[in-house]
Amino acid sequence: MLRAIARENRIRGIPVIDPVPLMDDATREDGDDDRPEPDQDKLRDLDRRVPTSRAASGAFDIGQSVAVRGGVVYAVEAVEGTDAALRSRSRDLGKGLVIAKVAKPGQDLRFDRPAIGPATIELLMEIGATIIGIESGKCLLLERERTLAMAQSSNLTVYGHA
Fold first, then answer.
1. Could you tell me the residue range of the domain that residue 111 belongs to?
2. Furthest-apart CA pair in the chain: how many Å?
3. Which residues pair with 69 in a beta bridge?
């Protein structure tokens, strides 16, 4: 529906654009992180699972988040949403999950963009996650300063990942 509205606006000479590229520091770049610096095991989990998440979300039109530990995918966001998916798996697995948040292939970022913010950090603190890898240039950082300060104070790494 949003694409149809955008198309109709374009016909009338009103472009609908993605505003995020116009905003400074709205996303992370590849390799950007905040302390603590991620260890090699966590980075390996991200390297393996970010492409898996992107492929699965595109092929099956499912959510934008995946939880990984020790190279194994333990949760994939679906209709229940990020919070419910991560909470349910963390009850079973305990602390130490690595979270990846990516855009779906072909996702229209003008209308639907993966994002994290203070509520995300609170959730990740609650479930004991150690790192969240967010897709570079695509995942929006809401309330950037507050989000990153909360992450840093809770020993959670926010990592920009290609």
1. 19-161
2. 53
3. 72
